[in-house]
Design brief:
The chain is α/β, with parallel strands linked by helices and about 450 residues long. It is about 30% helix and about 25% strand. The protein has eleven helices and 21 strands. Strands 1, 2, 3, 4, 5, 6 and 16 form a seven-stranded mixed β-sheet that branches. It has a five-stranded antiparallel β-sheet with strand order 17-18-21-20-19, sandwiched between helices. Strands 10-9-8-14 form a four-stranded parallel β-sheet, with helices on one face. Helix 1 packs parallel to helix 7 (about 310-325) and helix 3 (about 45-65) crosses helix 5.
């Protein structure tokens, strides 16, 4: 009856995984993408961001080296080299994604899909039909409607600026904002980050938030809370003047607006279906990723959940296994680890202290704050914070949080322990690797007084 068993709209992480696995189960699959294969993560998200994070860390490495006997001379940074090498790597990954899909037997169609009815889409003036349609178009930066908004950059454009901005203003308090503020400060730009609230990184553990707010300025970053931008005007020399909510004017060369993302649904033709939305404007789905239209499914960022590539991959696998493999597959959303690659980086898994106390009345907290061994010689004033949230009655570790070097790498391992249901006694009985920062997680013996 249909041209395909499955049409996937969006070739990001979730869509590609779902398409490949469905094809592996024998389904006839087509993937439609109007922008770039690999989605946000590969092109304007995780991958280029992490490359730029690496680049931004070298300035501190050069400074630290002197204490260890190294003298490298004057270090010079060239933006064009970083930018263009990044483009080459992304192009390579785009090709890999195309080959992965084609080798799995999927048809790849370049173009913007629009639904005509619950089983039909138009793309490149063609009509294509499918028994099932999966929407995996991800998110899109949301820019506030203020005078001069046309001068604001989103995370889509910030990677490819023609020239390196000597002064950068970052608006926002989420992970994208703090990561890019750290990146540009590390690359040598005079960087200011504004956040409208009293403390950024809402949703993370409060101790971690406060610790990072103390540590980031040590890298030269100017953090300003309870402040926002009211209007932006461009000067004759190409620079910008941002009028702030306290009436002051801040002059800068580039303004990154990282104030959130929204589901990328424009032009999809969902009005021709019975698809419903959540209060936040995301596509509403059930636990099998089915929308209110029985033939249409959605997963990943477009459904308004945690914006994490590994989670979209897990959802894509669960969808394909259930719908085309006949398997009872589900995604477990508990204890999902995540990292923020600011400076210092954050790694976290499980419940924050506030979340744990809201659920249980017998929470005990273990914390360790210390100067990393490296900086006893480098001379850098930098501190690491580690924290465990434990339920006293069961001894179960409910959350692990860290801000400091290699936080993401360390918490990935801790996440396995939490998913396995490890108790504090298990942590305590584990032999540490010495000397490492990670061993602190198995040597915290005394709880925080009153905690």
């Amino acid at each position: 009856m249909y041209d395909y068993d499955l049409l996937v709209i969006g070739a990001g992480s979730g869509g590609v995984r779902a398409a490949r696995m469905a094809a592996g189960f024998g389904a006839r699959v087509a993937v439609i993408e109007d922008r770039y294969l690999g989605g946000t993560c590969v092109n304007v998200g995780c991958v280029p961001k992490k490359l730029y994070v690496y680049a931004s860390e070298y300035s501190a490495h050069f400074d630290d080296a002197e204490g260890f006997g190294w003298s490298a001379g004057t270090a010079l940074f060239d933006w064009a080299t970083l930018r263009d090498n990044k483009k080459t790597e992304i192009a390579r990954l785009n090709g890999i994604y195309r080959r992965l899909l084609e080798n799995a037997g999927c048809t790849v169609i370049d173009g913007r899909a629009s639904l005509r009815d619950p089983h039909t889409v138009t793309v490149n003036d063609q009509f294509l039909s499918a028994e099932k349609i999966l929407i995996a178009t991800g998110g899109w930066p949301s820019i506030p409607d203020i005078p001069g908004r046309e001068h604001l950059l989103s995370s889509n454009e910030i990677f490819d600026l023609p020239r390196f901005p000597e002064r950068v203003l970052v608006i926002g308090g989420g992970y994208i904002a703090v990561e890019f503020a750290s990146i540009f400060a590390g690359l040598g730009a005079d960087t200011v980050q504004l956040y409208r609230g009293p403390l950024f990184l809402r949703g993370f553990d409060d101790d971690i938030r406060r610790h990072v707010a103390r540590e980031m300025p040590k890298k030269g970053l100017d953090l300003r809370f309870n402040l926002n931008v009211q209007a932006v005007a461009q000067r004759a020399d190409g620079s910008f003047a941002a009028t702030l909510t306290d009436g002051s004017v801040l002059e800068t060369d580039a303004i990154l607006c990282a104030t959130g993302r929204k589901p990328h649904l424009a032009g999809l033709g969902l009005e021709h279906t019975r698809v419903r939305y959540t209060d936040s404007g995301a596509i509403a789905v059930d636990e099998t990723f089915r929308t209110a239209e029985p033939s249409i499914y959605a997963l990943g960022d477009v459904t308004g959940g945690m914006e994490l590539t590994p989670l979209a991959l897990a959802e894509g696998m669960a969808f394909a296994r259930r719908e085309f493999g006949g398997l009872d597959a589900a995604v477990d959303y508990d204890n999902i680890p995540t990292a923020v690659f600011c400076q210092p980086p954050i790694g976290t898994v499980g419940l924050t202290e506030a979340q744990a106390r809201a659920r249980y009345d017998d929470i005990v907290i273990f914390k360790s704050e210390f100067r990393p061994m490296k900086h006893t010689i480098s001379g850098r004033d930098e501190r690491t914070l580690m924290k465990l949230v434990v339920q006293r009655s069961t001894d179960k570790v409910l959350g692990a949080h860290m801000a400091g070097a290699d936080a993401g790498e360390i918490i990935q391992g801790i996440a396995i322990a939490l998913r396995a249901g490890a108790t504090k006694a298990v942590f305590d009985s584990t032999i540490g690797i010495h000397p490492t920062a990670a061993e602190e997680f198995v040597t915290m013996r005394e709880p925080v007084p009153g905690g």
